[in-house]
Fold this protein.
Amino acid sequence: MSSMMGESSYKLAKEAKRTSDMLISTYNDDLVQNVCREIRMLHARAEASVREMRNSNTAPLNVPSQLTEIMLHHLTIKRNKRILFAYHHQRLKKLKELSWGIGRQSQERQIKEALSKEENDFLESYGDLVNNYKSRFLDIDLGGNGGVGLDPPLDLFIEVRVLRDAGKIITEYGELNLTKGNQEFVRRSDVETLIKAGYLKHIA
């Protein structure tokens, strides 16, 4: 191989750390394939060394350099696999969060272009499962599409901006006239449905 042993997996680990705060980064198929090729190459080398020792009827302790080489290949393979697992686990976790948390209609094209074919297939299938589950609990906000989500609210009262005229609503604290462009300080439970419907926007 032209690159140093373990270099591709090191780059992949650095990329996973660098992109951990992004919505979803572009799947780095080149680096993943390089790591996989190195794993196969090191495995073949280790097997060849073991066969050579067996055929020569040499005790492993009598060839410490060969034994060290086999151990080095074995440990590099383990490290490469752990980095591959970590990289894909991080991406899988983000795909699940996309389905449960923020919804993905507005950024669907951007997300799909960043994913591998297998990730797109997973997102589609997992999204169907989530939507099917949510459909059984329409009176409960389970996240997505502007909903509050699974996290408990931190504030009982929030500030909202009116995106579309919603008319007057009666609350425990009086009447609210929700006219487009207005900003109101309201109790969260009074307006959650209007936020989900797109009439209001929560101002963080």
